[in-house]
Design goal:
Distance between the termini: 23 Å
Number of strands: 8
Order of helices and strands: HHHHHEEEEEEEEHHHHHHH
Radius of gyration: 28 Å
Strand content: 15-25%
Length: 349
């Protein structure tokens, strides 16, 4: 109970500090509207939860166990012949349950909240933005309907393009099917079609078909709008990431980013268990040297700093494509978890 209360108190302190610092840092934006400023602050504060919960549990663990050492509760446990690991097991089980709870909370609450804030920030200006449905891009403007298999932001190119053009009375005038369509720049709605098959629908209900090597058409949509329309991996649930990986049809670098985000999201919550296992020996070990909360806390925070540094490097390496995206995050988590279990089992009874 003391571990849970201490961890909750530390997390609330971290969260309030983060909110206050972020508000002061962006206080000039309050002049643009309090509601919008609060929404942006809430959006940025979502990032503190996956990081704040593991750190709060680490500090709460050190705090509660150091107090137990100070009041000779650990000495009484050892004198009574009760296995120390059995006494500490509820803390470890609580950390494991918190890891699972954090994973569910992040996937079922934080991710939908992030997407809702993104949608709220988009407003009406993105109401007619391109949509990715059933594995294809779709966009409708006043005079065209577009369907494309994929879009490459690097080359500003659509692949597998079908376009239907209409006149002012909404009668179809032309159907363009092309292997590729390229925008001159990300802010240009004029697209260059390559190797296009064109069907012309005349007023006399005669359909003519011909092939052209290059063709221009205004689709009423820019490449930048497509790049912004797809939900970023950071705002996609685990199930959504898995579906996007399974149904992926695009640039390999995008697939690597999706897989790296998926495995990082899956392994990340286990940081709660890892840091608690690493923190327990520092707090209990102070019994031989005299109880000292600052010393135990500094040691635990030092190990936590090493963990977060390697975790960050793992996330970066996973996105480079030099190794399988699943390897770096799971290697860091499993490595530190093995060290934590070894140190926990090595505690003196």
């Amino acid at each position: 109970m003391e571990f849970a209360l201490a961890s909750a108190g530390v997390f609330m302190a971290l969260f309030v500090t983060w909110i206050s610092a972020d508000t002061l840092l962006h206080i000039d934006r309050l002049s643009g509207g309090i509601a919008e400023s609060l929404r942006d602050t809430l959006f940025r504060s979502l990032d503190i939860v996956p990081l704040g919960v593991p750190m709060a549990c680490l500090v709460g663990c050190v705090w509660s166990l150091t107090r137990a050492v100070r009041f000779r509760e650990i000495t009484a446990v050892r004198a009574g012949g009760i296995p120390l690991q059995r006494v500490l097991l509820p803390i470890v089980v609580s950390a494991l349950l918190l890891s699972l709870g954090l994973a569910l909370f992040q996937d079922r609450v934080l991710i939908p909240a992030r997407q809702a804030l993104i949608d709220a920030g988009a407003g009406d200006q993105d109401r007619d933005a391109p949509k990715f449905v059933a594995g294809r891009w779709w966009h409708a403007s006043s005079n065209t309907i577009l369907s494309a298999e994929r879009y490459s932001a690097e080359s500003r190119t659509l692949a597998g393009v079908n376009v239907f053009e209409f006149d002012d009375s909404r009668q179809i005038t032309r159907h363009i099917r092309a292997a590729e369509a390229e925008a001159e720049n990300s802010g240009d709605s004029i697209w260059q079609f390559r190797d296009a098959m064109v069907r012309q629908f005349a007023d006399s209900h005669v359909i003519t078909t011909h092939r052209v090597s290059r063709l221009q058409s205004d689709l009423g949509m820019t490449g930048g709008a497509i790049a912004r329309a797809r939900t970023p991996p950071e705002a996609t649930s685990l199930r959504g990431l898995a579906l996007r990986v399974r149904e992926f049809n695009g640039e390999s670098i995008d697939l690597i980013a999706l897989e790296a985000t998926f495995h990082g999201r899956l392994a990340g919550p286990l940081a709660v268990l890892v840091l608690v296992l690493l923190a327990v020996p520092f707090a209990i070990g102070d019994l031989e040297r005299g109880d000292s909360l600052p010393r135990a806390l500094l040691q635990a925070l030092g190990v936590a700093a090493c963990f977060w540094l390697l975790w960050t490097l793992a996330q970066v390496v996973a996105r480079t494509g030099t190794v399988p995206p699943a390897l770096p995050p799971w290697a860091v988590i499993c490595g530190f978890l093995a060290v934590g279990i070894w140190r926990f089992r090595a505690l003196k009874e």
